[in-house]
Each structure stands twice: as structure tokens, then as C-alpha cells.
Write a structure and sequence with these properties.
The protein has 372 residues and is of the alpha+beta class. It has two domains: 23-136, Rieske [2Fe-2S] iron-sulphur domain (Rieske Iron-sulfur Protein); 143-349, Naphthalene 1,2-dioxygenase Alpha Subunit, Chain A, domain 1 (Alpha-Beta Complex), CATH 3.90.380. The protein has helices at 3-7, 161-169, 174-177, 186-190, 216-221, 296-324, 337-365, 367-371; strands at 10-11, 23-28, 37-41, 44-50, 56-60, 74-76, 79-81, 88-89, 95-97, 115-118, 121-125, 148-157, 193-199, 202-212, 228-237, 240-249, 263-275, 278-288, 330-331. 36% of the residues are buried.
């Protein structure tokens, strides 16, 4: 086959630079306490802390005095005190106290980032603060419902954030990577029927597997006596993927919303870029209150940990191969339709942000601007 023939129908597996004007999960609410914690988000060191007023805050993790990490400091009241020389900063990043002197230098401040706590997560906006609105934060109401018992975890993957989105939005891999947990027959996964819906800033896929064997993870949580119907609904928007799964005895499921007394799962999957080759993975799973019994949630968490460690192995191997074979193209297949829709959304958001930044540079450097 010629090189020209090989090139047809291929693409570069390049994820666009992660946009900053997006709400990302920076931590679970329970993680942010009076003890500062450090996170790297979009290649920026960030420190999260909670003041005595109960409000979470996020600052650049660098003291403006001698560049010590503020995450090595301590919370005093509603202030974050640098652990090196004691400068104190408020939630807006302004230094309000310098030990040993009355005057606080006007330049003594550090960048702060808008944060919002919602549905158990602390969301952070790394871009233009003026563009951040609370209505843009993705919702997951089950985390605030007494009818849903859940727990969230935080993994760090040595892989580009786009690879994890691909993984979550193309579930044909489940039969191959997870045969002993949530998988099942490989061919049944590859032959699943899926419909993709695209909208303004979101994409949704509904995937049906009819008359198939129940996987081990389902049997451990809600045993079935025979073959089942499985439905998986994946919803994407920048910053979050949710995956709802229902299953019941074959022939019992009429639509993709009502599990009745069958198996039911609703997963929260927030992916936050750490750097070009690393990402944070904030995931949560739960159990409906009507099915709750001692040890059930813990069992589901453990099965999910095993599953996502299996994903880690393949994703980190992918990332190493991308470095090993830079610039080589890849091909897309039918099952990539939802992940490709998500990639196009990311590309559009990133391009719009870069175009806006470029226009601001041009305005600032124009003769009329320089003359003012």
C-alpha cells in the first residue's frame, strides 16, 4: 500500500490545548478543609483552602514575597498564611498582613480563581474571571439527592485529557479491557446499537445491548438469573461526562430512563487537565437508596476502582506510544462517533478562546490603543 493510500481516512490524534474558560473540578468538597491542598491545573500550581466562614477559595500556589508554595502554609481565620515568612492572603489573593510591619506593599498579591461548590465538587475557573457564570457549571443533581448514596474518588492519570474522554465515550473497549468486571462478550459490545445526538456545546450517545449475558459487576450488585438488556446513556459537555446505565431481564426494558427494579448506575466523570500529558480524574458512583444495604456501596466502589485501574494501564500505554511515534496518523471507526463529536466541541471551544485572545492582543497593540 502506498503512503498516499495509507493517508486517506486518517487523522492526527491531537487534542487541542485545554481551554481556560471552562469550569473544571479542582477537588471534592470534602477534600477542601482548613489544611491547604496543592493541585496542578492547566499547568498552573493552585492551592485550595477553606476559611472559618466555610467558604472554599483557590489561589496561585506561590507567595509573591519569595515564591514559597502557599500550600505549605496554614489557614488563620479566613486568611491563608504563607508558611515561610507569615504573609497573610485573603480569598481574593490580596495580602492583608505582613508580620513585622504596618505597611502592606500594594503589589503584594497573588492570582485568585473563581470557585463554586456544587453537587459535592469544587469547580474552578482558570480563565477570565469576568466570563465565569454559575449557570455554566455542569449539574449532577443526584449528588444532592437523599435518594442516591454515592462516593467520589480522585485518580491521577499520566495521559492527555483527550484520551480519557475518548475512553469514556467509546464503550466498545469495555468488552476487551474489563472482561472480569463491567465487560462481557467482546462481539456484543462491538455490535451494540448507538445513536448520537449533537447540540450546542454537548453531545449524547444512547447505546443498547439486547439479550446479552450480564457482566460480573452487575451480578455482584444485582444478581440476574438469565440474559439481560443493557442501556448506556453517555452525556458530554466540556469538563464532565455522565454515564447512566440500566439493565434488566431481556425484554423488560422499554426505554433508556426507567430501570424499574433492575440494575441502575449513574456515574460522574470529571476530567481536569493537569498538563499536556497528565490529567485529574474525579469520578463518583452510587447506589439508589431503595437498593441500599450494608456494604453494597463499598463493593461497588471497589469494583469501580479495579475497572479504572485497568483503564489507567491502557491510557498510560497510549500516551507513551504517542511520544514514541510522534505525528503518525490514526484511523477512526464507527464506534468513535461520540468521542469525535466531543473532540470537535473541544476544538471549537479552544479555537474561539484563542481567537478572542488574539483579537485582544491586536486591539492592545493597535496605534489608537498605544496613543491613549
Amino acid at each position: 500500500m502506498t503512503n498516499e493510500a495509507r493517508a486517506k481516512g486518517t487523522m492526527q490524534l491531537n487534542t487541542p490545548p485545554a481551554p481556560r474558560n471552562v469550569w473544571y473540578v479542582g477537588a471534592w468538597c470534602r477534600e477542601v478543609t482548613s489544611k491547604p491542598i496543592a493541585r496542578r491545573i492547566l499547568d498552573t500550581p493552585v492551592v485550595f483552602f477553606r476559611g472559618e466562614d466555610g467558604r472554599a477559595a483557590a489561589l496561585q500556589d506561590r507567595c509573591c514575597h519569595r515564591a514559597a508554595p502557599l500550600s505549605l502554609g496554614r489557614v488563620k481565620g479566613n486568611l491563608l498564611q504563607c508558611g515561610y515568612h507569615g504573609l497573610c492572603f485573603d480569598a481574593g489573593g490580596q495580602c492583608v498582613r505582613v508580620p513585622g510591619q504596618d505597611l502592606v506593599p500594594p503589589a503584594a498579591c497573588v492570582p485568585s480563581y473563581p470557585v463554586l461548590e456544587q453537587d459535592g465538587a469544587v469547580w474552578i475557573w482558570m480563565g477570565d474571571p469576568a466570563a465565569a457564570t454559575s449557570s455554566q457549571v455542569p449539574r449532577f443533581p443526584r449528588h444532592s439527592s437523599p435518594d442516591w448514596h454515592w462516593r467520589g474518588e480522585h485518580f491521577g492519570y499520566s495521559a492527555n485529557y483527550g484520551l480519557l474522554y475518548d475512553n469514556l465515550l467509546d464503550l466498545t473497549h469495555v468488552g476487551y479491557i474489563h472482561p472480569n468486571t463491567i465487560g462481557g462478550n467482546e462481539e456484543e459490545h462491538s455490535n451494540a446499537k448507538m445513536e448520537v445526538q449533537r447540540g450546542d456545546g454537548f453531545a449524547k450517545g444512547v447505546r443498547w445491548m439486547r439479550d446479552v449475558d450480564p457482566p460480573a459487576a452487575y451480578q455482584a450488585l444485582r444478581p440476574f438469573t438469565g440474559r439481560i438488556d443493557r442501556c448506556q446513556v453517555m452525556r458530554f459537555q466540556p469538563g464532565l461526562v455522565t454515564i447512566s446505565i440500566i439493565a434488566h431481564d431481556a425484554g423488560r426494558l422499554a426505554d433508556d430512563e426507567d430501570a424499574m427494579d433492575g440494575y441502575e448506575s449513574h456515574g460522574f466523570h470529571a476530567i481536569t487537565p493537569e498538563s499536556e500529558t497528565r490529567c485529574h480524574y474525579f469520578w463518583a458512583v452510587g447506589v439508589p437508596a431503595r437498593f441500599m444495604k450494608p456494604g453494597l456501596l463499598e463493593k461497588k466502589i471497589e469494583l469501580t476502582r479495579i475497572t479504572f485501574e485497568e483503564d489507567r494501564e491502557i491510557l498510560e500505554a497510549q500516551q507513551r506510544n504517542l511520544k514514541e511515534f510522534p505525528g503518525l496518523p490514526v484511523v477512526s471507526i464507527r464506534s468513535d462517533s461520540l468521542s469525535m463529536a466531543a473532540r470537535r466541541i473541544w476544538a471549537a471551544v479552544s479555537a474561539a478562546e484563542q481567537a478572542n485572545a488574539q483579537s485582544l492582543v491586536q486591539i492592545a497593540s493597535s496605534p489608537s490603543a498605544l496613543a491613549t
